[in-house]
Hints:
Blueprint: E1 13-14, E2 30-38, E3 45-50, E4 54-59, E5 62-63, E6 79-86, E7 94-103, E8 129-134, E9 137-141, E10 147-150, E11 153-157, E12 161-165, E13 187-188, E14 195-198, E15 204-210, E16 214-217, E17 223-241, E18 246-252, H1 264-267, E19 280-284, E20 291-293, E21 300-310, E22 313-325, H2 338-353, E23 355-356, E24 358-359, H3 371-381
Parallel strand pairs: 6-14, 12-19
Antiparallel strand pairs: 1-13, 2-7, 2-10, 3-6, 3-8, 4-5, 4-7, 8-9, 11-12, 15-22, 16-17, 17-20, 17-21, 17-22, 18-19, 18-21, 23-24
Amino acid sequence: MAASGRKWSAYWINREGEGCNWLDPVKPAPYFRREFVCEKVPVSAKILLAMPGWGELYLNGAKVSDYVLAPVATQFDKHVGYLEYDVTALIKEGRNAIGVLLGNGWYNCSTADVWHFDKAIWRGYPRFLLEMEVDNQLFLKSDRSWKCATGPILFDSLRNGEQYDARLELGDWSVPGYDASGWTAPQIVQAPPGALIREKMEQCKVMRHYTVTELWQTSSGSTVYDFGRNLTGWVDLRVRGAAGSVVTMVYSELIDDRKRIDPSNINLFISDRDTHGFQMEKYILKGDGVEHYEPRFTYNGFRYVEVKLEGDAQIESLEACFVHNSFESVGELTCDNPTVNALAQCTLMSFLGNFTGFPTDCAHLEKNGWTGDAHRACETGL
């Protein structure tokens, strides 16, 4: 029985099974799919999807919502959030296909750091619980009738970033008729320890884009892109080049005297055992015209991005995506004093940049939900 009082018939499923501890390697992100037939176009249809990590829901080839980093993380030994999606407009008469893509998020945090989330008691491989209701009747649920596989997301970590190999993309994996003969059945696994709760808060979205204000070459041949402000999120990369070429992007809020990014304020908190780069994304090209990449299951606190190219690759554009909870603004502050206006804008950016799911103390380093910081800042936010 869920905390909301809802009784679920579905099973928790994943690809890797049980286990997972702080010594286990990070696995590639799992993809899940299932086809179904609707005899007629439904009057109403909704999907309820619970995930202790982050995930994306697809139906007939389309991502169901513009949420990112969803659902918002909880303390998983107490609560696990689920989202409700209205999918009436996406279901058609005849064959349909549903897809789920899972990321680690806070549930399977692998970074070796001083806060030891890699040793959290709830840690496990990503899993999900799903039920679809059509015209108020249970129509489909997560069980072993689904199929699963891995694809281009080789690595994803809340703090360490993401590695994406476009040569391994799965094509139209969430459309009906897709050849999933190489996919396997998922595992039925234990539920996370926390009670299920429906999340009604504003989920994270890409709320704004910023263009580069300045860029320069470093002595090592990399390029530093300056977006002129601190923000939370990632970059929207457009690149062309030969298959197998690599774009490495490292994010930071600081630069050093040589005008290279300076992660020294972060490195104090990261263990020598952690061999993955911090706030680093790698994209491997498939060699097909202009390629587009945005990470799915990580975020960064940054002003600067240092980009290194390996192989035959050329950056077409780089744009910063400001990601935070999709709050509505109910007011603003402006006056005839430009200093006060600038202070108000900096305060707003800092507040929003520390609401990437739940209130945090800083977006670039910890990303931890220290409630004392939120308490001290709540009057300012209001």
